[in-house]
């Protein structure tokens, strides 16, 4: 092996393979599909793990099991007290609307939860759907108020 060989042919932006553009391209005539058969026809797809040559596919032999309720549950967006300390001034109101207007929350969610990680020294009025016990305790200890929306 030649040590220089390692880097040959490696490009940052590789051109797409143009199939069916003549024999000189190396992908002409049958366009890399071989001769005849199901795979040579248009519209043919092979499912990953789907067809096992006539044998029963593995995913059909294994039993279906379990249920996941995640699709129907509420999306909860969690924010720590440390972020409120960093982004808000004393006397400010923290609510889902103010969080969105300041660009702190960009995702879509159903419920907002305040968590107690960090320290709070400012007096804030915090409105959210849920509060952890430590977060509510720290907000009240700093002289602020906790309101469930």
From TrEMBL:
Q: Which GO terms describe its cellular component?
A: cytosolic large ribosomal subunit
Q: Does the keyword Transmembrane apply?
A: no
Would the keyword Coiled coil be found if you checked this record's keyword annotation? no
* Cross-referenced SUPFAM superfamilies: Ribosomal proteins L15p and L18e
Specify the Large ribosomal subunit protein uL15/eL18 domain's residue ranges: 79-147
Q: Which GO terms describe its molecular function?
A: rRNA binding; structural constituent of ribosome
Q: Which UniProt keywords apply?
A: Ribonucleoprotein, Ribosomal protein, RNA-binding, rRNA-binding
Q: Where are the residues of the annotated region Disordered?
A: 1-55
Source species, domain of life = Bacteria
Transmembrane spans: none
GO biological process terms held by the UniProt record: translation
Question: Where does this protein have compositionally biased stretches of type Basic residues?
Answer: 9-20, 30-45
HAMAP family registered for this protein in UniProt: Ribosomal_uL15
Self-association state and partner proteins as the record states: Part of the 50S ribosomal subunit.
Described purpose of this protein according to its UniProt entry: Binds to the 23S rRNA.
The family assignment reads:
Belongs to the universal ribosomal protein uL15 family.
Name under which the protein is recorded: Large ribosomal subunit protein uL15
**Annotated source species:** Caulifigura coniformis
Q: What is the lineage of its organism?
A: Bacteria, Pseudomonadati, Planctomycetota, Planctomycetia, Planctomycetales
């Amino acid at each position: 092996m030649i040590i220089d060989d390692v880097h040959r042919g490696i490009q940052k932006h590789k051109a797409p393979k143009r199939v069916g553009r003549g024999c000189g391209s190396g992908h002409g005539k049958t366009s890399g599909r071989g001769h005849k058969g199901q795979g040579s026809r248009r519209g043919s797809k092979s499912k990953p793990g789907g067809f096992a040559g006539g044998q029963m596919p593995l995913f059909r032999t294994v039993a279906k099991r379990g249920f996941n309720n995640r699709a129907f549950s509420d999306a909860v967006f969690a924010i720590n007290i440390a972020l409120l300390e960093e982004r808000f001034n004393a006397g400010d109101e923290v609510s889902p609307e103010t969080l969105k207007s300041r660009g702190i929350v960009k995702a879509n969610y159903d419920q907002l939860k305040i968590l107690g990680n960090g320290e709070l020294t400012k007096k804030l009025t915090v409105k959210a759907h849920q509060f952890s016990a430590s977060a509510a305790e720290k907000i009240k200890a700093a002289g602020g108020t906790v309101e469930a929306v």
